[in-house]
Every structure is written in C-alpha cells, then in structure tokens.
Amino acid sequence: MGWVPLFLCATIGTTSTTAVDPLKPLCHVAKEYGMWVHVDAAYGGSACICPEFRHVIDGVEGADSFSLNAHKWFFTTLDCCCLWVKNPDALKRSLSTNPEYLRNQASDSGGVIDYKDWQLTLSRRFRSLKLWMVLRSYGVANLRSFLRGHVAMAKAFEKLVAGDDRFEVVVPRRFAMVCFRMSANNLMNKKLLERVNGSGRVFMTHALVGGIYLLRFAVGSTLTEAEHVMEAWKVIQEHADAIQGDYKHLY
C-alpha cells in the first residue's frame, strides 16, 4: 500500500486471553524491514523466571525492547513496569533534552545514566526500590514456587470446568488464567458473572473475544491457596444452578 512498516509489538500473555505471539518468526520478518520490535510481556513475562516457561520468549534476542509489569504477577505494588532496551541510544536521540540548567559534570562525562533522556518527563518515581524489596524478601526460589503454584491451581480449576458439561474452556489455558463460559448464551454468562461477583465471595472479570462473552478466572495473589480455588468453583456452580433454574422457569 506504499506505507513504511517501522514498529511491531508482540505480546506474551494478552490481556483478554493470555495468548502468546510467535516471537521468533515475527522478529525474522521485522528484521527484513528494519522494524523496531517491542515485546509486551506485561503479564506473561514474570513466568519466565521459571525455566519451563521460557519457551514463550524463544527468539527474544531479536527484539529491541522488552517490558513486563511487576505489579501484575510479580507481587509488587502498583505501579511498577520494567523496561529493557537493547540500544538506549535510540531513545536518547529521540527524547534527550540538554538545556544549560540541566548540565552537570556527571552527566557531561557519561558517569551516570540520565533517565530523563529515556522518557518524556524529566523526573521519575523511585519504582525500583519496591521491586528490589520483593526480590530481597522472597528470593528467586520462593518467587518461582509462587508462580508454579498459581499455574497448578489454574490447571486444577481448568479440570473442574472441563468436568462439568454445562461449562467449556473457551481458549487454551496459558499461565495462571482460565477463560471459560457457561453456555453459548452471552447474556447468561454475563448474568453469571454479575451474580458471582455480587456474592462478595469471588471476583472475576470478563472479555469479549470474537463475539464470545467469556469469564476470566485468574490466580495471582500471594495468599491464594487450593482451598480458595475449590471454594470459588462451588460459588460458580451455585449461581449457575440458580440461573439455570430461572431460565427453566421462564421458558
């Protein structure tokens, strides 16, 4: 069409369904056209501290930048987004400002990293401190254990859903989120979500993908245990029974 491709964003764990883009082939195509490749691993990136999940970023060496939100699945309080850039000079050439009142010996000599040249604003919050505290408090072994535990609980919930003929898993589970629905009736699924959340015992969210209204069950809290997942499933079943009873009464 005569347009010039310049930027490609690949996602590792999309918001709606935690889908994963094929990073390696995308990077190959982008390289042919000299495109900047950014990897949005806001959710799924945290799982990559576990060796068994690193296959989702195969080909990441071909990316120019990579980000993950530590406040999503890395136990860090909002907000904390980690950004890695292969070539920081690209940001500096675009975003740096050097008025006389900002000049100093440390910056002029290159002895410090001026993050003002990596972003639009001159100042920034000290977000790295709270992430450092998480790393020091838990340690890598415990962080991996938490993430693996969340995935295991999501797998268990997925089996519960698959074992009930009234429900279906809409998309393949990845990481620690299960996308499911009660029936092909979007209105019924919406009603189920409203009633479950209204109970005050469980909180879920939803997404609309390809016209399908699906429920999103995400495990991600440090305090969540298997018993809570079982309790959540009981609550979902209770309200599913009630909704089916209402529909039978109406029709």
From TrEMBL:
Alphabetical list of Gene3D superfamilies matching this protein: Aspartate Aminotransferase, domain 1 (3.90.1150.10), Type I PLP-dependent aspartate aminotransferase-like (Major domain) (3.40.640.10)
Q: Which cofactors does it use? A: pyridoxal 5'-phosphate
Q: According to the lineage, what is the superkingdom?
A: Eukaryota
Going by the UniProt record, its keywords in alphabetical order are: Decarboxylase, Lyase, Pyridoxal phosphate, Signal
Spell out the protein name for this chain.
Answer: Uncharacterized protein
Oxidoreductase is among the record's keywords: no
MF annotations from Gene Ontology: carboxy-lyase activity; pyridoxal phosphate binding
Which PROSITE patterns does the record cross-reference, listed alphabetically?
DDC_GAD_HDC_YDC (PS00392)
Instruction: Identify the stretch annotated as signal peptide in this record.
Output: 1-19
Locate the N6-(pyridoxal phosphate)lysine modifications and list their residues.
Answer: K72
What family is reported? Belongs to the group II decarboxylase family.
Q: Which Pfam families match?
A: Pyridoxal_deC
What GO biological process terms are annotated to this protein in UniProt? amino acid metabolic process; carboxylic acid metabolic process
A GO CC term assigned to this protein in UniProt:
cytoplasm
Q: Where do transmembrane segments lie in this chain?
A: none
